[in-house]
Amino acid sequence: xxxxxxxxxxxxxxxxxxxxxxxxxxxAVPAAVLPFVRAGKLGDERISxxxxxxxxxxxxxxRALAVLVLLCGGLLPLALLAALxxxxxxxxxxxxKADLRFLHRAALVLEHWAIPEVQxxxxxxxxxxxxxxxxxxxxxxxxxxxxxALSLLAAQRSFELAPSGPPPSARGGKxxxxx
Amino acid sequence: xNRLLALPRFKSTSTAAALALTAxxxxxxxxxxxxxxxxxxxxxxxxxIFSGALELWKQGLWAIAAIVFTASIIIPVLKLAGLxxxxxxxxxxxPADPRRLTRVYAxxxxxxxxxxxDVFLAAFLTGLVQFGEFSTVTPRSGIVAFASAVVxxxxxxxxxxxxxxxxxxxxxxx
Lengths: 179, 174
What we know:
heterodimer; A: mainly alpha; Butyryl-CoA Dehydrogenase, subunit A, domain 3; three-stranded antiparallel sheet; elongated; B: alpha+beta; four-stranded antiparallel sheet; 8 helices; about 10% strand; disordered N terminus
């Protein structure tokens, strides 16, 4: 699974990860503001954005759920992309490297909660399910979101943050700086 | 947040056991209560997680039904069973095959996220299908129970430290 581990410690892996995380950050903007999905029913058309569902959940009183979806599908992937970008920045950007160890730990935790790929699958399932009920077409926002999810996966795969293998090497000490 | 991020302190086998147990309890209402109501020109239906997947199957969307069934029913159960196995092994101390158990842990860690599928699905459908009396989707209380069960299992997996499966003295330098 972790093919990227071969690149561990190499500048190539870190550079690849840096490029993918910046790509992901840039793609997140159109993903959030462009139409995500268009749905039509009997002449009534509705354009939903990425977080229309979050708004509906919030208005419907399921606020904890709305926050969970907003975090896992939007904010935490962004935070993880930003963290990866800083972690993999070349060493000449010294001023970025002040609190790397905290950021490294944060990225390890974020990896469990930033799950845009699951949201992509959910949208695909929903589109299939809705096929018989309403007319749905995907918008550019959805494709940008898919590309963002792929960039995040690629960034994570090109440089493994947590060294795998038997655990005796205590963690918490050296946070693997990408040099 | 800082305390949560201090992984070694946060990790504890008994915390993991408590979280896993709570998750197992939450799975009961999650599967019994309806998660979504669909209203389509007069007719009104409420679906539980299982009946939602079954409905997809009846519509002929077998692949989709299989995905939903795997993500929402098989994975949570599999993950809790696996965690229970790891916790028991850790409790008995010094399992014979720590390497295999650590792989099981990594696998559980990876599959857990896909259970969030149903939560995203409910959120997305709620946002999109709002056509007044013609067709409206409303989330129901079951989805909250389900989401909390999923969050608790992820927390339980993170609280469990696979290092407790290994003997105290390192057998192999890394």
